[in-house]
Amino acid sequence: MTEVNSPPRPGGWTRFVTARPGLSLLAALVLTVLAVLAGSGVAERLGSGGWEDPAAQSTYATKALEREFPGSQPNLLLLVDAGEASVDEPAVVAEANRLTASLAAEKGVVGVGSYWRAGAPEAASALRAQDGHEALIAARITGDEKAMGETLDRIAPVLRGTHGPVEVRIGGGVAVRHEMQTVIQEDLTRAEVIALPITLVLLVMVFGSAVAALLPLGIGIVAILGTNAVLSGLTRFTDVSVFAMNLTTALGLGLAIDYALFIVRRFREELAAGADPSTAIGTTLRTAGRTVLFSALTVAVSLAAMLLFPQYFLRSFAYAGMAVVLLAAAAALILLPAALILLGDRVNSWDLRRLFRRGRPAAASVEEGGRVWGRTANLVMRRAPFFALATTAVLVLLGLPFLGVKFGTADDRQLPSSAESHVVQQHLRDGFPGSPGGGLEVLAEGRATPAQYAAYKERVAALPEVARVDGPAVHGDSAYFTVQPEGEAVGDAAQDLVGDLRATAAPFETSVTGTAAVLVDSQHAIGDRLPWAAAFIAVVTLLLVFLLTGSVLIPLQAVLLNALSLTAMFGAVVWVFQDGHLSGLLGFTSPGSIETTLPVLMFCVAFGLSMDYGVFLLSRIKEEYDRTGDHEGAVALGVRRTGGLITAAAVILAVVMVAIGTSRVTNTKMLGLGIALAVLMDAMVVRSLLVPAVMRLTGRATWWAPAPLRGFHRRFGLSEGESTVRAPAPVPDGPAPDGPASHQPVSDGPGRDKVDARG
Q1: N or C: which end of the chain has fewer CB within 10 A?
Q2: Measured between alpha carbons, how far is 453 from 508 in angstroms, rounded to an integer?
């Protein structure tokens, strides 16, 4: 080994962020206050839809029907319950007609109809419960989501409740979305109340020092407030989903804490090794700081892939996720160093763990934990084939339920069973014929004769999945038919019927919409863009990890192992949320399907977080390998130095995600609990067992790259490294078996600790 000496000196970035630390913190405080003002009330401007493809046929038909036939697609349903009486009793009829007239007089409400004014017997029967004690009043609230919500807030208190002989409950699509938005806001506040104190306790357990523990929490709060301001600004230009607020809180706390954990831990290590605060910050930013930067880029890349999809539900998560990740990284790389410079050795103040250590030095428990991870890594590498095969088999087994996934749409069953709009829709499913409000609409455009309309109606009625055809309703050169499918509104028969209707010949242009049509079009849009999104994530991730490591094999390993780590999450999502296992314990109603966009969202978020931990581990392994040239020693020491910290970061992030998972909205519950499981599996299984085993099997060939790429990495690559390093042993131009030196396990004895006191 030869030594390359380079005197430690602060780089330009270090000088920039630490030149005036007090001024930096004051500027951050001012910007945070401005962010609070800009982001206040952002939840009220967010939408609760966004699952449809704006360019799809169903979206076009929906907008055309809203324009030409405002009453064709009711989004407000009043469930009129006559108790033990019949809905045809005179007193009930009189009160129902009064309610219908009152609703029709409201501003922003069109297309009001009811069982009592339906006219045609077939249409009337669809609006009357089979037991004769309930019936419906249907209408459409016009305007955008905000306007519809304001109208509903105005009229709901007047309509809801007891009116003479009847009891009225409010349902329909607009009520479901509005209630979902309200519940999400309430649940998000509760999640923050749960997560913040638990997170603070865990940080104190990790750091010991209350001062050090408060720093990551502060960075997370700054990131969340900044992202709320960004989302507030975006709502002025585009639609943003209210569900994105949950991701903002989860990633804002989780990633900011992750980044601050690594920077504060490295800073404290440097102080413990005798460095002054300025030198310690310089080393920290050159090492942990670079890792944080790469980590943020990899997470942002995974989230950016959702911009390739047309649904604003997915795009909203890209907006929120990228903003919070970049803000968290910026705060960790700018504000945190300034705070550490001002604190210096006081970062270790208020060591609360002294109350429990009974005289043991703080370093003792930390070092003991590191040795456990080091011994685990050595054990795994000694039995590498067994651990690699066994871990892979278990992960694949846990993912098998996903093979039976069924995709559906988000409906009222996302809400608690006690929610009013859920109760109404459940009554419709259980007690009304067909699927009121859940049929398919066929828009016919172009001049046609009554005979042509009649012939087309006969052809549609003859399709095997059709229960009933109503219409046509004609306005000028346009008309529409309502087609009731057999079974569920979004069942297999309804989805097949969408294709059959679009293939049915007609003497005019036809467009099909309705719940099942929106689902079919959404699946098609996701299927078309999914390969591009996956390729984007893979290519950019491969490039970033190569720039970090200079290896060709490590980026491939990182992508494949990260994808493998997500199998347990996807298997659990189907087993629990689709099949309904644990639904009683977790408090949700299973619709028997998974909302189409959720797997895409969960993959992008969980893959990014897995890469986050992967970068932390790989950067430390690379740093040690560059220092010693010892492959297995670098792997073991990398696991030893980061295992406890990655686990602590994963547990803290999982706590935040579980707090999000306490939501009463099923999709949010699925997102929170699913990603919590993925994060824990990645940190505790993949990083501690599978990665060391695979890197042992690939040996020193792990670090191989062809000569042109080695030159590219020397010029453009970045990695953690110290000012003084040993040149690594040469790596051959092609894959080679491990040399004798690579089989030496890392010693956990004092000699090794002395060599790596600063690592």
Answers
A1: N
A2: 9
Pairing label, strands 407-408, 594-595: parallel
Q: By mean pLDDT, which of 56-60, 436-440, 754-758 is the weakest?
A: 754-758
Q: What count of other Cβ atoms lies within 10 Å of the Cβ of residue 355?
A: 7
> Which residue(s) pair with 478 in the sheet?
445, 475
Q: Is the Cα torsion angle 692, 697, 700, 701 positive or negative in sign?
A: negative
pLDDT tens track for 613-666: 888 898 889 888 988 889 999 999 989 888 888 888 889 889 989 999 999 989
Count, residues in the chain:
759
Confirm if 412 and 180 have CB atoms less than 8 A apart. no
For residues 486 and 465, what is the distance between their CA atoms, to the nearest angstrom?
A: 6
Could you give the 3-state DSSP secondary structure of residue 582? coil
Nearest residue to 267 (alpha-carbon basis) of 226, 307, 312, 212: 212
- Residue whose C-alpha is closest to residue 502's, from 444, 578, 583, 567: 444
Q: How far apart are CA 377 and CA 384, in angstroms?
A: 10
Structure token pair of residue 401: 């339920």
Tokens of 700: 């020193």
What's the pLDDT tens digit per position in 32-41? Answer: 888 888 877 7
The rounded mean pLDDT for the chain is: 83
Whether the Cβ atoms of residue 649 and residue 613 lie closer than 8 Å to each other: yes
Q: For residues 606 and 298, is the Cβ–Cβ distance under 8 A?
A: no
Q: Omega of the bond prior to 472 within 30 degrees of 0, cis? A: yes
Count of Cβ atoms closer than 10 Å to residue 752 Cβ: 18
CA 650/CA 613 separation, integer angstroms = 8
Q: Please, which residues have CB within 8 angstroms of residue 393's CB and are 6 or more apart in sequence?
A: none
pTM: 0.82
- CA dihedral over 177, 182, 186, 188, signed as positive or negative: positive
Distance CA 116, CA 97 (A): 7
Q: Do the bridges between strand 76-81 and strand 166-171 make them parallel or antiparallel, or are there none, so unpaired?
A: antiparallel
Residue 577 and residue 703 in contact, taking contact as beta carbons nearer than 8 Å: no
